[in-house]
Amino acid sequence: MTYQEQTSQIGQLVASYKGTWDGIDAESVARMRLQNRFRTGLDIARYTAAIMRRDMAAYDANPAEYTQSLGCWHGFIGQQKLISIKKHFGTTKGRYLYLSGWMVAALRSEFGPLPDQSMHEKTSVPALIEELYTFLKQADARELGMMFRDLDKARESGNEIEAQRLTQVIDNYETHVVPIIADIDAGFGNAEATYLLAKKMIEAGACALQIENQVSDEKQCGHQDGKVTVPHEDFLAKVRACRYAFLELGVDDGIIVTRTDSLGAGLTKQIAFSKEKGDIGDQYNSFLDCEEVTDLSTLRGDVVIERDGKLMRPKRLPSNLFQFREGTGADRCVLDCITSLQNGADLLWIETEKPHIEQIASMVDRIREVIPNAKLVYNNSPSFNWTLNFRQQVFDAWVEAGKDVSAYDRAKLMSVDYDDTDLAAEADERIRTFQKDAAARAGIFHHLITLPTYHTAALSTDNLAKEYFGEAGMLGYVKGVQRKEIREGIACVKHQNMSGSDIGDDHKEYFAGEAALKAGGAHNTMNQFAA
Fold first, then answer.
1. What would the pLDDT profile of 146-168 be if each residue is shown by its tens digit?
2. What is the pTM of this model?
3. What's the CATH architecture for 41-274+326-378+436-447?
4. Residue 53 burial (CB count, 10 A)
5. 506 a known binding residue?
6. Residue 329 forms beta bridges with which residues?
7. Any catalytic annotation for residue 492?
8. What NCBIfam families does the database record attribute to this sequence (predicted)?
9. Which residue is catalytic, options 72, 207, 221, 333?
């Protein structure tokens, strides 16, 4: 329904109350409705799930159509990201938000900063989803509010052409609301606990849930040691729990991202149940590091399994965890991914220890032999030393090609001494094109950085503190922050407007007319920042 159609329809509703609603302005109601397009989190989840499904189909047709996101730990950060994207690129197409469990643990827990081990309150995850969407919806209300003010000015000046143009812009307005891929860790408990949390996350607006195959109470960050996986049937029960949650809430095309940590996980807490040779439990157990038992007197409460007619004892650590054979990580990842896609997953996440396209592609190629349209969400992680990794990749490629590398020390390539070299330039170019190249070669549909805004907040705060508390004093803020905000068109330089002051003024005028006491008058210091 167009802006004018809504205004007309509401006008008829007001008139039907025979004068008792004459204090209600129909166009103001139409404006408020447009500024609050999404009434519930489920409205958002359904809307954004459809976006992701269209984007996934577009990627299947053309791998150049990959998507991206940045992890955001606060609603304001997510809001400013989307405002920036719209400012610089004119559209939010292909850009999402990522909700990182790592950042929830580190920045949003009532316990204070925590490691990424599922120790934070599970309710803090849906709370952050709701907060992110509250700020994105407020960005819509703010931007539309400015359009409405411009429309009023055009009408007041008699510029009908401009008024018609603005009306069309309003009718075709693109929202800041985009999909969120939300980290549910290992499900925070058993399958029922996973289902209950999934419902809360979906009700808050999440259209995509990312769940990993680690043991819930032993969960570790994907880039730390000590990861412990679970048998496939245990994990698939949680995948089904997420799907049930989506279907119960009417988000029929919700997306489930299954993450495998098997590449770096050398341990399992339990031996899988197997009914017959070659079933999924037997395949999981086939990776266990075992030794043959030939003398029963050597058993001391050990678990034993049968393998090819032999009695085998899986190696068990003092922690009671069982160990996989070294070198089986990639094979286990491939099995995990195929099994997940065959049991309801939509997208895969393979957590790797380095950003190496051919390493990722070597696993995806095997997965696609079974499921041709398999595609990944990939963590462009800050845990990787991107500079060193790619300089070493170039170094190794040059060695293989027979190029002279005598001017370089492979172990010290991070040094600033190499910054202006041909090797560093080639490495930086590979980093620049990594997402495009990996989308084409390694099946990566969605590239994300889990905790970039954690690092940018630390870096920018360090720069400000160094200047402001040093010799620069107030110039440290003015030159390093405010002057840049003004000249680069950063919207929140007018922080009163960004926080909703003008929206509030509009509402006061709707409610009280000429009697409204508004904040945005001539004496508002934000007028110093007029364009």
1. 999 999 999 999 999 999 999 99
2. 0.92
3. Alpha-Beta Barrel (3.20)
4. 16
5. no
6. none
7. no
8. PRK06498.1 (NF005074)
9. 221
